[in-house]
Amino acid sequence: MSDTTIDTALLKQVTQLPESRNKQQDSFAELQNNARAKYKAEGLPDRTLHLWRYTDPSQFLYSDGSESHQNGSAIPANAPIASGVSPAYDTALEQLNAGELSAVALDNADVSLRIELTPVAIKAGLVALPLSLAGADYSDILKRHLATEVGADFGKFEALNTTLWEDGIFIYAPDNVRIEEPIHLLRRGSASSRWTFPRTLIVVGENSKLTVVDEYYSANETVAGKSNAVVEVFGHANSEVEYFVLQRNNAKTLSHYTERTILVGDTSKSMLVAASFGSKTHKANLGTIMQGRQTKSLQYGLVFGSDKQSFDHHTEHINRGANGYSDLDFKVVLKDKAHSTYTGLIRVDENIKNCEAYQSNRNLLLNRGTKAESIPELEILCDEVVCTHGATVGPIDEMQVFYLLSRGIPRTDAVRMIVRGHVEPTLKILPESLQPRVRSYVDERLATL
Amino acid sequence: MSNYILQIKDVHVEVEGKEVVKGVTLDIGKGEVHALMGKNGSGKSSLSNAIMGHPSYSITSGDVLLDGVSVLEMDPNERSLAGLFLAFQYPQAVPGVTVANFLRSALMARRNDDKAMRTFRKELYAAMDALEVDHEFGGRYLNDGFSGGEKKRLEILQLSMLKPTMALLDETDSGLDIDALKIVSEGINNYCSAENGILLVTHYQRILDYVKPTKVHVMIDGKIVKTGGPEIALELEKSGYESFQPELAEVSG
Amino acid sequence: MSDKAQNTQTATELPPDPMIKGDDYAEKYGFYSAEAAKNYFLKGGKGLSHEVVENISRIKGEPQWMNDFRHKSLDIFLSKPMPNWGDTKLMGELDFQNIYYYIKPTEKSAQDNWDDVPDYIKNTFDKLGIPEAEQKFLGGVSAQFESEVVYHSLKEDLAKKGVIFLDMDEALKQHPDLVKKYFSTVIPPSDNKFAALNSAVWSGGSFIYVPKGVDVGAAPLQAYFRINAENMGQFERTLIIADEGARVHYIEGCTAPIWSSDSLHSAVVEVIAHDSAYIRYTTIQNWANNIYNLVTKRAVAKKNATVEWVDGNLGSKLTMKFPCVYLAEEGAKAEILSVAFAGTGQHQDAGAKVIHVAKNTSSRITSKSISKDKGIASYRGMVKVYKGAEGSKVSVECDALLIGSEARSDTYPTMEIHEDNVKIEHEARVSKVSEEQLFYLTSRGISEDDARLLIVNGFIEPFTKELPMEYAVELNRLIELEMTGSVG
Predict the structure, then answer these.
(1) What whole-number distance in Å separates Cα of residue C404 and Cα of residue C485?
(2) Is the peptide bond before A18 cis (omega within 30 degrees of 0)?
(3) Which residue of A has its CA nearest to B155?
(4) Domain of C330, in residue numbers
(5) How far from C290 is each of C36, C229, C261, C286, C409, CA to CA, in Å?
(6) Running DSSP on this structure, what letter comes out for residue C420?
(7) Is B95's Cβ below 8 Å from some Cβ in A?
(8) DSSP A280-319
(9) Residue A260's pLDDT is what?
């Protein structure tokens, strides 16, 4: 891969966080100073409102002392990435070599950010760079997109990410660049229990197409990781973007994640799939703002909680353009003592003509002791709309179980089949490069029924 | 060991605290096809569901023996493995589970052997062809969005693949047009052998033109009021269930 | 509406404010009785203080525990912030110091003969058709004017069976122990700011006790609440207890004149259904569009008991009302059925709460809302299933109809489920009147306005069919008024 690999291993600014790192990233200094001021000025989110009713926001406050940063810096900056550092990375590289992926990024919190592209993707015009290097050639693109939606003013914890991101990933498809094979981003957490702040900006130009897989995982099974990630996706006129986020941190991790897709241009399309398996507490806020006319947005969610995991997902569909179509299907499966909150908002702004918006949230509770909250909200400010939402919470349908039993299938297998069936429509949407692994995460959890 | 495959002994069934089957006794021997006829609400579907072990139907007294062994203590899947099969009147949809995966699991529960499963696809396609079911069905979700006729064909497809010794067919003929009825009946006839038995639960005489019953039972208000040969079905067709009503009065009086 | 001349005789000094509601409302409900106002027996000053609370309690000659309760509640009210959710803008415009907290319209307490009610008050209720309805089909009637109930009656046969139907003040005098046993047990003053306010300054309202096994169901008991004065605050307090196996249907109606400045209606309603009892509570609220209607309603359903809230919300400037049923014991059932109509200048923030605490409890919520022109209708709901409430079933259905491009509909349902063996279903739909339906009806020669009205009446049919016939007819007429009123 020698001549086709862009190796951008970087020193991460981990030594003197948070005060001095802006000197090293001058281009973002103003942005980050502003965000720092906002983070400090803003109080904790109001817990009486839906968004934070079920998760304590104080746990996401920046809490690291300097010693944990030194832990981070103890790892040599340009240490080579050993093969076997993570099986997922090895698999991704294999898929890259086989041409099944167009780019792979390893964002290793303690070491470096390394991005590799296939020659085909480079030739087609795909840009994948660390944010710190993107400024040289793409300063205008950055200026027009970076932190314009999820920045200092979005919320306290998003301001925190904007202040402290430790380099980020910039994926850009200029106009008329259609990349069919997915780009796979691997976000490996720190081996020390310090906060990490992954940041992603995806910009899809006019008539362009991108598919991105964004995977978050822990450095090992024992570290109590802390992650605060922000992702912004922009779709220009007639573009198509598919973004898959897979969160499989270890069960000790605390994770906060905010994503916004902005369909800026007319007839742009987006698909967002969030699969959450990991973390002790996972707070995620995902949304699509449909600004252009005749845009289409699909969102899918899949949560599988076990043990004492706590998930809190919020989704939004904001319709600001005429003739928009949005659909959301959010599925939750809980076992042991897992807890899930789902809040979903559909908002149709004033004077928006002919829009359709659908939302469905299904919660399957596999045993007593699980808890589910569902708050599907509609805010409809004009009349030219068709909007529906539905939500259900309950155990596995005993009639389905009986049907399978009557064919000789044992109860546990029947339950597994039904749960797999419940999540199957979502799994089927995942890129083929990802499906087998995500299926195995479902099966792992079903193994101990 | 008796010669009977299925013996229903003075079975009483309750659903939601209400008695819907009020003492039914019925013996089905090897190679026999019994038709159980009755109007809606007569208790015939309740009886077949209760025999299969449906959680909403409880057998409050009496016994059901399969090959001389009581099934009442068995879970539904154990009853299935023991050789009992119920073709449902309203087959349950299980979204996300494909027909092929479901059938593979059902066969695995019987064979529990990867080698024996090698022929699965061939068997499935053969069964599908026999019932004029498109192979594409294997990839569809179980009963999800199926038409009434498709569901019934799929039930008979399962019958032909799982090869039970005793089949309870609950209103398998309802909702079928004449062509589909012929195909389904052929499927049932192909399954018939000297070694197994069929209880055909139906409302109409129509299917009995294609599947010849050994015996016909008429059920009214939770009880069998008359048993005889195929001629009873014709009599029913001609004069309706009302003509059997007085006999009920005699029986219960 | 048929006899305009007669209306204008008694209804004088109508403040001209055609923007708020159609002329028809003014004619039929929005009249103001200046004569009654002239004859008020007692009208204190505006504003709220411990002194005001003390005066109300003293005038009523209340026992000490109630006096203490009022003062304690006022402290809670003063210490609680305004809600930080809902229509905070409209709530912010509410000036608690610009409200009359107590007006006693007549020296006498509630009469049981209409002839003994002073004419200047009776005229109002005559026009609203209350005595007529009483004769026709009601089992009992209570009529409240400003702060006090001026008339109440109960059919003799019901009284003989031990049914108690009194205004709350009278109940406190005649049945002090019974009132004390149940009062504020379902809704403590600390529940919310407006419950605290009502607890401090409550006056009037109904007290109903139905003894074991007595069925009042066939002939509903009705209360009618009338606000007359400008800047009035009406704070009735209602408590309904159905003992084991008892059945009762209670209906309340409310109207007010149209003023250009705001009045406040803030009731507290507590309902207790003992084992196997059945209570239906029907509200047809038709407030003028300057009324803040901030009401707390909650019921407790014990073993196998059923509580039904049938709640029709028309009129008012801002309504915040979320009838609740606490399913406390096994087999309890709740049904909450509501309709809200919001036109320009109105926000109907209504909904339902069901709290499942015990096994095999079930609830069904059906909400229908119509937002027209610049109206805002919100559904705010809470379904909570506690661990241990196995076998609970919940079904929630919210339908919203939008008429006009500036209409707004919000849906905020919350489901907190802490038990796995349950069946919870929620569905919501928002849409406008379908062009296909309109086309179909107009193609049969029906005018577009009539077609739209037909569709709207069809939309709320699941609600109207639950009303006694007289009320269903009245509701359809009210909807017609709303539909033909202001033009958006």
Answers:
(1) 14
(2) yes
(3) A407
(4) 33-434
(5) 20, 12, 6, 11, 21
(6) S
(7) yes
(8) SEEEEEEEEEE-STT-EEEEEEEEEE-TT-EEEEEEEEEE
(9) 98
pLDDT, tens digit (0-9, with 9 covering 90-100), for B9-60: 999 999 989 999 999 999 999 999 999 999 888 999 999 999 999 988 999 9
Residues 6 or more apart whose Cβ sits within 8 Å of residue B249: none
The whole-model pTM stands at 0.84
CA distance A304 to chain C (A): 15
In a domain, C201, yes or no: yes
By the 8 A CB rule, do C321 and C311 touch? yes
Q: Do chains C and A touch (3 or more CB pairs under 8 A)?
A: yes
Which chain A residues touch C413 with a CB distance below 8 Å?
374-377, 391
Q: Domain count of chain C?
A: 1
Which residues in chain B are contacts of A425 at CB distance < 8 A? 95-96
Task: Check contact A-B (3+ Cβ pairs < 8 Å).
Answer: yes
Which residue does chain A place closest to C422, by CA atoms? A394
* CA pair distance A263, A268, nearest whole angstrom: 6
Q: How far is Cα C242 from Cα B187, in angstroms, rounded to an integer?
A: 62
Provide the pLDDT for residue C2. 40
Helix (H) or strand (E) holding A419: helix A411-427
Q: Where are the domains of chain A?
A: 21-292, 397-449
Extract the tokens encoding A337. 């003592």
C188-209 residue pLDDT tens: 999 999 999 999 999 999 999 9
Interface of A with C (CB under 8 A): 46, 48-50, 350-351, 363, 365-395
Distance CA C369, CA A383 (A): 13
> Hey, are the CB atoms on C430 and A388 less than 8 Å from each other?
yes
Point out the residue among B76, B96, B142 whose CB comes nearest to the CB of A402. Answer: B76
Distance from the A391 Cα atom to the nearest Cα atom in chain B, whole angstroms: 17
> Taking each helix axis from N to C terminus, what angle separates A435-447 and A411-427, rounded to the nearest 10 degrees?
150
Residue B7 three-state SS: strand
Give the mutation candidate from C430, C432, C435, C456 for the A interface (greatest A CB count, under 10 A). Answer: C430
Taking the C-alpha atoms of residue C292 and residue C95, their distance in angstroms, rounded to an integer, is 11
B102: which 2 tokens? 């479901």
Residue of C nearest to A46 (CA): C84
Q: Is C251 helix (H, G, I), strand (E, B) or coil?
A: strand
B117-132: per-residue pLDDT in tens? 788 889 899 999 988 8
B window 147-186, beta carbon within 8 A of A: 158, 162
Size of interface A-B (CB pairs under 8 A): 85
User: Which residues of chain C neighbour A367 with C-beta distances below 8 Å?
Assistant: 420
Closest chain A CA to residue C388: A368
pLDDT of residue C481: 78
CA-wise closest residue to A108 among A158, A167, A38 = A167
Task: Give pLDDT tens digits for A280-321.
Answer: 999 999 999 999 999 999 999 999 999 999 999 999 999 999
pLDDT at C485: 57
Instruction: Name all chains with 3 or more CB-CB pairs below 8 Å to chain C.
Output: A
Query: Is C140 contained in some domain?
Result: yes
Domain assignment of residue C12, yes or no: no
Domain at B4-91+146-252, CATH homologous superfamily: P-loop containing nucleotide triphosphate hydrolases (3.40.50.300)
Cβ pair C430:A365 closer than 8 A: no
What is the Rg, in whole angstroms, of the alpha carbon atoms belonging to chain A? 21
Using H for helix, E for strand and C for coil, what is the string for A349-397?
Answer: CCCCCCEEEEEEEEEEECCCCCEEEEEEEEEECCCCEEEEEEEEEECCC
**Residue C149: which of C222, C217, C87, C88 has the closest Cα?**
C222
Judged by CB atoms closer than 8 Å, whether chains meet at B75 and A405 is answered as yes
